[in-house]
Amino acid sequence: MILIAADVLQVADLVETIPDVADRLIETFWPGPLTIVFKASERLQEFAFRKSKTIAVRVPDSLICLALLKSCGFPLVSTSANRSGEAESTYAHEVSRVFGDELDLIIDGGETPSKIPSTVVDVTRTPIRIIRQGAISEPEISTVLDVY
What we know:
Blueprint: E1 2-4, H1 8-12, H2 20-29, E2 34-39, E3 54-58, H3 63-72, E4 76-78, H4 92-99, E5 119-122, E6 129-132, H5 138-147
Parallel strand pairs: 1-3, 2-5
Antiparallel strand pairs: 1-4, 2-3, 5-6
């Protein structure tokens, strides 16, 4: 599970701190296909994330998702549109077939713009670590970080 947020202000409430390296990635790739793993805020310990000291967050580039997130005013728990190791789902009916009644809500915004999942980067360590290679390549990330 990850949390999707409308903007970096919502993210700031979820995490212990936003390190400089994360700021650079956020400025370049959000909204977009980059999921960042942060140290979770102690405030989250009372919720479902209490067993983990980290939290994965993304600001999606879907206009439908951003509108929903802005209108409700808080981040939402989200999942990938597939199970680990399985093919990506690109339509709502495919997500429904894979997850069935496990999800509270599936938003049908048509076909997803990309069949490539988000890149997941852990900024809780130095140097940062790419956990999953996705739509943003390691060279693209390195270029952004080397510029500063």
